[in-house]
Design brief:
Helix content: 40-55%
Distance between the termini: 69 Å
Family: Belongs to the UPF0065 (bug) family.
Protein name: Tripartite tricarboxylate transporter family receptor
Pfam family, one: TctC
Keywords: Receptor
Radius of gyration: 25 Å
Strand content: 15-25%
CATH superfamily of the largest domain: Bordetella uptake gene, domain 1
CATH topology of the largest domain: D-Maltodextrin-Binding Protein, domain 2
Low-confidence stretches: 1-37
Order of helices and strands: HHEHEHEHEHEHEHEHEEHHEH
Structural class: alpha/beta
């Protein structure tokens, strides 16, 4: 039984070949052990961090998807809201978690493509600090004016503010509503003062009360209902496509104002260093969840995606490149 090894040992260069063979064997064993370890994943509940407050439309959607993913994973996905500091608190919690698949997070175009650019010292790197899992869903932004306003088109809004300077509401400094408001102001040349609020609801309440002239906000069922009730008026969709929630409302491009658009997308990431086998398990579970009727009941009016990790990584990189100069041009900065 020792004949072949002895013959090999006697040949020139046999030492390097033995080391290579041993290395290959150890590599195979390591891969096998990794497969055994990942085969058991997940063995306990998974924490899903949301950098948004409870009760928001994105919180409701994420909880519905998490509940469906739990069924596939065989473990509960526990949703934990970590709102505050423009999403930085939640994002840093995901970045600092152990890359073992038991702490992941929901991210959006704001927390990845916008928020880091608001700080002179970036709180995290949107590309290097996270491992993409899947792009989940998105909803378009909508340009709202008070239901009592005589303004019915974007052109009429521009004319009204040029005749009499006014203000616009946003969900806070650096929010989607703020960036879209600045794009709109810069493109049209209107004299509109930014009024930041702490979230969507108080901003829209002042739009409905006609204390401000307009606001860009995400499409959702509750806002569609307010439009039906006459409390708000939707005059344009600030996205590539129209929204089924607001039938007949044109896009900003169709209204003659191209370039003022933002799809508010949401997706899932883990901390950098999360292994590919675990990413594969999570991707399969959440992609499956996104396709269920139960999850889609909570995603009405949203565009549902189910992408590969690579496709999501490409979307993140593209939007970071797109929004960084817009943030700089707006001059918006916040304190760390």
């Amino acid at each position: 039984m020792s004949y072949l090894p002895n013959r090999l040992n006697d040949r020139p260069g046999s030492s390097s070949r033995r080391r290579a063979a041993a290395g290959a064997l150890l590599g195979a064993v390591a891969l096998a052990l990794a497969g055994v370890a990942h085969a058991a994943y997940p063995e306990r509940p998974i924490t899903l961090i949301l950098p948004v407050p409870p009760g928001s439309s994105s919180d409701i959607a994420a909880r519905a998807v998490a509940a469906e993913a739990s069924k596939t994973l065989g473990q509960t996905v526990v949703v934990e809201n970590r709102a505050g500091a423009h999403g930085v608190i939640g994002m840093q919690a995901v970045r600092g978690a152990r890359p073992d698949g038991y702490t992941i997070g929901v991210v959006n175009v704001g927390t990845l493509a916008v928020t880091p650019e608001l700080f002179t010292r970036k709180p995290y790197d949107p590309v290097r600090d996270f491992k993409p899992i899947t792009l989940g869903w998105s909803f378009p932004s909508v340009l709202f004016v008070p239901g009592s306003s005589p303004v019915k088109t974007v052109a009429e809004l521009v004319a009204a503010i040029k005749a009499k300077p006014d203000s616009y509401a946003s969900q806070g400094p650096g929010s989607g509503g703020h960036l879209l408001g600045e794009q709109f102001r810069l493109q049209t040349g209107v004299d509109a003062t930014h009024v930041p609020y702490k979230g969507s609801l108080p901003a829209l309440q002042d739009v409905m009360a006609a204390r401000v002239a307009f606001s860009f906000d995400g499409a959702s069922l509750d806002k569609a209902q307010w439009v039906k009730e006459g409390r708000l008026r939707a005059i344009a969709i600030a996205a590539r496509n129209r929204s089924e929630l607001f039938p007949g409302v044109p896009t900003m491009r169709e209204a003659g104002f191209p370039g003022v658009e933002m799809d508010i997308w949401f997706g899932l990431v883990g901390p950098a260093g999360l292994s590919d086998p675990i990413v594969h398990v999570l991707n399969a579970a959440f992609v499956s969840a996104l396709k269920t009727a139960q999850a889609n009941n909570q995603l009405q009016g949203f565009e549902v995606y189910a992408t590969s990790p690579r496709e999501f990584a490409e979307r993140i990189a593209a939007d970071v490149a797109h929004f960084a100069p817009i943030v700089k041009q707006s001059g918006v900065q916040v304190e760390h």
